[in-house]
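A reminder before we start the practical. When you read a complex entry, don't treat the lines as separate problems. The point of joint prediction is that each chain is placed relative to the others, so the output describes one connected object in space. Small molecules and nucleic acid strands, if listed, are placed in the same frame. In the example below there are two entries. Take a minute to note the order of the lines before looking further.
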Amino acid sequence: MVVAAILILGACGGTTSTSTPAGGESAAPPPSEAPAGSESAAPAGSPSAAGAIPEQGVDDGSTITMWSRAATETRVQSQVDEYNATHKNKVELRLVPTDEYVSVVGNAATANELPDLFSADVVFMPNWTSAGLFADLTDRIDNLPGIENVGAAHIDASTWEGKEVRAAVHHRPVGVDVQQGPVPAGRPRSRQGANEPEGIRRRRRAVQALNIDGTYGTYFGGACGGCNVFTWWPIIWAGGGDVMNADGTEALLNSADAKEIYKTFNALWDEGVINPESQQEAGPTWTQPFPAGKVGVMPMPASLQESEGMPLDNLGVVAIAGVNGGESTFVGGDSIGISKDAKNPEAAWNFITWMLGDHNQVEVVAKGGNVVARTDLADNQYSSADPRLVLFNTIAGKGKTPLAKNFNAAFNDPQSPWIQLFRAAVFDDADDAKIDELNNGITSVLQE
Amino acid sequence: MSVASRLTARRLTGRSSAWTRRRQLTGVAYALPTVFFVVVFFILPLLLVGQMSASDWKLLTGDKGINFPTNYGALNSSPLFWPAIEFTIRYTVIVTVLLIGLGLALALIVQETSRWVGMLRTVFLLPLAVGLAAASLLFWGFYSDQIGPVNPLLQDAGLIDKPILFFATHTNAFLSTVFMIIWKFVGLYMLILLVGLQAISTEYYEAASIDGAGRWQIFRHITLPLLRPSLALALILCVTGSLLAFDHFYLLTKGGPTTRRSPIVQLIYQQAFVRQNLGTAAALSLVLLAALLILNLMWFRLLRRGRQWHERTVEPRVDVRADALLRADGRPRDHLPVPARVGRGVLVQRAGRLGPGALATASATTSGSSTSRKACRATS
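Here is the predicted structure of the whole assembly.
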């Protein structure tokens, strides 16, 4: 079994958090800062005299090329800027349009032209690590101080059994899903119900209650596979169920809980409390209706940055509840690793170790309203100031990251069988037999 | 033949063959650059695609060896293959009919010079200046209920009560996409057909008018037949472009919201970059290439037949008219001379129905014209 690297820039924190972050100090760290608890193996910015590579890589003025998907721009750019400002190395970040990212990386991999560093949506990691796109960082990651505080889900996703090459460090947790109850300015109203995480029936009542004054009760990506992976699967997990088998080769999206979700949304759709635009939402504008005050309550990414443009004071956040109670979340985000074609692997490693360091996690990630990657830093001065951030960090420990080699084709692709399934169930009143049949279609793709 | 003569002939033959060889070499030299580009940018990639289609070739891991005919068999078993074929054909038929029909209508409107024609031509052609990707994004914005102005404008105008969901259903998304494509490309087809229209000599129209032909008769019996080459070109461009459609589907809806809205090229993209199976994608590409090849061969064949038909019917028709209207001494005839020719040309047919008086008037009107003189010269 192999592990990958890990780093998290965003979120995926845990429930506990005893150690202090950098203690709340915000002084700029030295270059090549190590993760908490580590000792600097060599003077920053200089390889050891013996020629061995310092534990934290090198900071010798190298230019590090890095790719990331455009959807992560806000989080990644802030970290790159901070690194460039405090190090001799310079990271050249290329943001690739999210929809094109897989094909761009695939073409570059075939041509052996991958950059030094590139990140991936965590759900793609099994596919990419199994194909050998990342350099093997096993030894380094195993010895990386503080690694035990990084979300296990991301480490699992970046590990490929039986492979000698393994790598990948990760950053930015995309998806701790929460319900948010907005109160548009000048239109105060009760949010009771929206903030009580008790089961899907309670959610249904909250949606109905908030469908007032020209504001729809809720919104979802009716043509967006990833959106509903992100926001509906935690409902199943919260009840103790699962969406796939352990190998990611069999879909379980025809379970009783799953069918209950479809029925609930089907009923809400028929009642007219779901924003009709949901039927054509393919993802690009998925998070827009809520900040615009057009929706009462909906699951969204666990980042306050996503809510820019709306008064945060009017934003309520709760964990996603299961069908019969409980709570869970989708621990998403991106993993980042050193590519198999890296020309400056030691400088790239320096960037990765810095990403997991206290300064970046607290002063850049947490300060930006994101969930930190290291659970030991979940309780920091920024998160404690906002109970919503505390919830983000806390709920991440109860979440999951689904793993399947053919995840993209089965769930994210616009023609994926998953989209066919939930569209048939919600918009076309598909019966149980039809749902079973469509679930088998997902399994077929997972087994390709 | 004397020995000297034979030697001279041999020398001449030798010079001739040397000259021929030089000419051949010169021809080859002229053709070489084109051959180079065709080989490097068409033949070699085609061979590579052929190899790929017969191999277990993954995007991330490369060629794993020959697996023919697995990739071709996988096409038939794919649940998306036949719906994509059906959708692509339906899209092609609808878009072709609309684009060429509307293009022709616009070309007819703007072919005459009048006060507003210049402005109209510009307006119809302007969307061509916008790239397809830019146009798709523009319409995606227009159609969006979140950021677009269309729904608010229609609602403010009282034309609709609820926002139109342009991409919510298969039908809505299809119509929205077709509308965008018509807006984008109708100017191109207008231009192609306008060039064809303006290549038709006005003499035909003048003669037809003189002979009393109505607008519809002129359109059906003169404009359409003489426009055939331009129509064929437009047809080939439109059908080929529609069969290869991808960009706007991908940008507007990513091929959604259902699998029934995926054109064949979207399926190729999906196989290559989502399923990461370059072998199947290559097989699909070759199937599409074969379909395009067959279609274009059919068009060319039809075009050739059309040209032959044109030579048999339209050209003689003009000659018949000249013969019909003028006597050998160049003076107008009083009557149609050859009833047997009536069946060969529409102008003569029409003239025959007008009666001798009208014909005499028409003939007198045109007898001194360049039309008649040229026609007479052509027939003599």
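Discuss with your neighbour: The radius of gyration of chain B is 30 Å. What might explain this?
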